[in-house]
Amino acid sequence: MSTTPSHNQRVVSGMRPTGLLHLGHYHGVLKNWVEMQLNYECFFFVADWHALTTHYETPGGISQHVEDMAIDWLAAGISPSSATIFTQSHVPEHAELHLLLSMITPLGWLERVPTYKDQQEKLKERDLATYGFLGYPLLQSADILVYKADRVPVGEDQVAHIELTREVARRFNHLYGKEPDFEQKAEQAATKMGKKQAKMYRDLRRQYQEQGSGEALEIGRALLESQQNLSLGDRERLFGYLEGSGKIILPEPQAALTKASKMPGLDGQKMSKSYNNTIALREAPESVEKKIRTMPTDPARGRRTDPGDPAKCPVWQFHEVYSDETTKQWVQEGCRSAGIGCLECKQPVIAAVQAELAPIQRRAAEFEENRGRVRDILREGSEAARQVARETLADVMEAMRFTHHQR
């Protein structure tokens, strides 16, 4: 698995399986994942339990969607040799950690997550006054913390969820991170770094704890990161000792902000199935052509001879994503002078979208014909993910002194 030379940083992200993916998903999420898998240790999961929070009345379709989503991911370039691709419900440790975290998470924290009220407003037709819906941000936290993720790629609207995850990790570490003889064990761990490094570590710790020096904290963390001969337990002990907390059992993840998808829908709004304005990744070329040909344009261009304004036309937003400077200039001049008609203007967009989708669709067709291979990838990924999740759960149980029933 390829990772950055300096940091074996771990990225975790998931997506709810609610049907075939479209260009909005591709430009907003998948292209970013394809890049990340080359630089980080990535865990990408199909969040089938999360789909139940809003679709609990119709769970039957979810398993079909799981495979379809995996096919779309693989076709878009997510590779099982570069990332761990798996199904959330095949790693029961997600649920187990969620249960344990639910014991320590104040209700008020969940009620103030902005998406809780938003979604209830948006999805009025569904009964979302359920325990599962209130708790789904905490299940998300468990999804992240069970892999001790360093980074979580999210859009602006999900930052509050990462903040909640950090608070939950902090509370857990505060409650359970003080092992017996913690200071003594941390001092012993420091001596393993060698005389010079240990002195430097202790000086930095003093500067941070006595003067609150943020710089000393950063240098201290970097010093610990560079230590090759420390066990994971000793390293985490020293991180906690440096920061004045206990041992860090669940590290706090960082939000890796993804650029908002610039991919508009066919009507100029955000591309979304609920607006019925999408182009699916596996949309047939003739259907792509038909959808773009019938896109609304600037209302001022009632006739071919009427000049228009690209800024008022949804097609221009597609040119912004797909066209080079020369084509954009041709559109600007042609539209404003009525030198080109709307169908002419749409032609380069049709060609560009079809060209982008062609290789994705070729790969999707291969996986479609070999669904057994897709199931194998998900099974193998789930087994690999489960090994990591089990280790975290063992750490959590040990910290809670709750190991008597371990399997």
Automatic annotation (TrEMBL):
Q: Which Gene3D superfamilies match?
A: HUPs (3.40.50.620), Tyrosyl-Transfer RNA Synthetase (1.10.240.10)
The family assignment reads: Belongs to the class-I aminoacyl-tRNA synthetase family.
Query: EC number(s) per UniProt?
Result: 6.1.1.2
A GO MF annotation of the entry reads:
tryptophan-tRNA ligase activity
Q: So where does this one cross the membrane? A: none
Fetch the Pfam families from UniProt. tRNA-synt_1b
Keyword Transferase carried by entry: no
Task: State the name under which the record lists this protein.
Answer: Tryptophan--tRNA ligase
PANTHER family in UniProt: TRYPTOPHAN--TRNA LIGASE, MITOCHONDRIAL
Q: InterPro entries recorded for this chain?
A: aa-tRNA-synth_I_CS (IPR001412), aa-tRNA-synth_Ic (IPR002305), Rossmann-like_a/b/a_fold (IPR014729), Trp-tRNA-ligase (IPR002306), Trp-tRNA_synthetase (IPR050203)
Q: Which UniProt keywords apply?
A: Aminoacyl-tRNA synthetase, ATP-binding, Ligase, Nucleotide-binding, Protein biosynthesis
Q: Which organism is it from?
A: Thiothrix litoralis
Q: Does the keyword Protein biosynthesis apply?
A: yes
